[in-house]
């Protein structure tokens, strides 16, 4: 018998902050590399996420770690975990 109160495994991603102009929201760009099934060509998939940043610590150009959580609004379901590397031009 399994315990139904277990926390699900969260999905962590690392990406670059593209925009920090909204209040408590940042836009993070993530890049994945996949191989085409038929032609075996390496492809780069880019996706942008709206991320909830409660303390507004991330700035544009920073490298951040985000995780998936419960939906905060229509577009926001990712949350800021930590800033991995700050952009040196922001300091």
Task: Write a compact overview of the structure shown.
It contains no helices and 5 strands. It has strands at 12-22, 25-35, 42-52, 63-68, 76-85.
Task: Describe the structure in your own words.
The protein is 0% helix and 54% strand. It is an all-beta fold and 91 residues long. The chain has a single domain (12-85), classed as OB fold (Dihydrolipoamide Acetyltransferase, E2P), CATH 2.40.50. The protein has a 5-stranded mixed beta barrel. A hairpin with a 6-residue loop joins β2 (25-35) and β3 (42-52). The model has no long low-confidence stretch (mean pLDDT 91).
Topology, pairings included?
Elements: E1 12-22, E2 25-35, E3 42-52, E4 63-68, E5 76-85
Parallel strand pairs: 3-5
Antiparallel strand pairs: 1-2, 1-4, 2-3, 4-5
Features:
mainly beta, 5-stranded mixed barrel, about 55% strand, single chain, globular, about 90 residues
């Amino acid at each position: 018998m399994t315990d139904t109160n277990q926390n699900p495994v969260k999905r962590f991603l690392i990406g670059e902050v593209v925009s920090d102009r909204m209040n408590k929201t940042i836009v993070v760009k993530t890049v994945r590399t996949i191989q085409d099934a038929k032609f075996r060509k390496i492809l780069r998939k880019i996706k942008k996420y709206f991320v909830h940043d409660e303390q507004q610590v991330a700035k544009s150009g920073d490298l951040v770690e985000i995780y998936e959580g419960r939906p905060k609004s229509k577009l926001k379901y990712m949350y800021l975990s930590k800033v991995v590397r700050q952009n040196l031009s922001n300091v």
